[in-house]
Amino acid sequence: MVRALSLKTPGAAVTALPGNCSKIMDTTTIPIAKLSTKPSENPLLRTLPAELNTDLVDLHCHSTASDGILSPAQLVSRAKSQGVTLMALTDHDTVDGVSQAQDTGDQMGIIVLPGIEFSCLWGRRPIHIVGLNVDPASERLCDAIALREKLRHERAERIAERLHKRGFEGALEGGRAIAGESVLGRPHFARWLVEAGHVEDTARAFKRYLGAGKVGDVRVAWPQLAETVETIHAAGGSAVLAHPLKYGLTRTQLLRLLKEFSASDGDAVELLCGRQNPTQTRELRTLMSTVAAESGGSQLRCSLGSDFHQPDQSWRELGCVRLPEDVEPVWNLWHTLHRDRSSHT
Q1: 10-residue block means of pLDDT along the chain (345 residues)?
Q2: pTM of the model
């Protein structure tokens, strides 16, 4: 196995960076991000070996660092058992699990890219942008994480207050107890509602109390799409539009989203996110081609992932989907950029 590059720095200070990123700095090994064609303060490069087997790739999954059930180490172990050779840990608005995931990947012979799934807004609509192969120590990235952590804490308090008014006492304490050191989110409140005996399962918790339009659906002033893409690029990463088929958009709205993402210098679209309707996948490809034709530029690359959260959901098991052979995968960026970098040195 060709190990991912790393930069050794003696005695990095825990207080050097804000927010969740301080937890990254208590080791002496900082993963190196790949060199982006977008502005980045990181001059170093994280690339994939040219001979890497990419038959089974998963670039979107979650651990206990956010709202997943498995620890980062358990997640990587499960990915290895599923035959995955390349993965990215993309927890919601945090990189806290990356170090443990990469250590486990090194031990098991699976490449783990540092990633994140950022919450942001497209206009007034919440969407997600995945950052792949980011530098977890990037100051811009850490500032963006710190902002979202603040917004999440404020939202959690408002959700708890609303649930309290509906007669559910102790929601904030219960949600925090379940989240532990993870980013507190609606899935934790859902699990608390189940454990407290208020609903039968988390699906009903969302349907009755936490889903769109329900009492726990609290709007948040997340940063906008273009700013989020810029943040990911500043951290040396590739920006991927996450699960575009899951926002409930009409065809016209989805086309407009793809156009704006492309115009914001987005790098790739998550063509597959867990098992999905093949007809919808073909339609998404058509829309991506339309965007490229109308803009006169190159087509957005394709990414994929399971959006794994827990083991009992077979439709989003780790490594459950494969990209079609006739699309350009997002990981080609990291090979190509390595060649571009080499030609200038």
Answers
A1: 31 38 40 35 51 88 93 97 96 95 94 96 97 96 96 93 93 91 85 94 93 92 98 96 96 97 97 95 97 89 96 90 94 65 35
A2: 0.81
Could you tell me where the DSSP H helices lie in the chain? 72-81, 98-108, 139-165, 171-179, 186-195, 202-205, 225-234, 251-263, 278-295, 332-343
- Name the 3-class secondary structure at 18: coil
Using CA atoms, how far residue 279 sits from 271, 284, 304, 320, 344, in Å, is 12, 9, 16, 18, 43
Compute the radius of gyration of the chain from its Cα atoms.
Answer: 20
Place of tokens 């991506």: 288
The token pair that represents 19 in the structure block: 């927010």
Q: Are strands 29-31 and 6-8 parallel, antiparallel or unpaired?
A: antiparallel
Nearest one of 333, 323, 289, 275 to 303, comparing CA atoms: 323
CA distances from 263 to 129, 166, 230, 244, 259 (A): 15, 44, 12, 16, 6
- Six-digit token pair at 71? 């620890």
Asked if 223 and 120 touch (Cβ cutoff 8 Å), the reply is yes
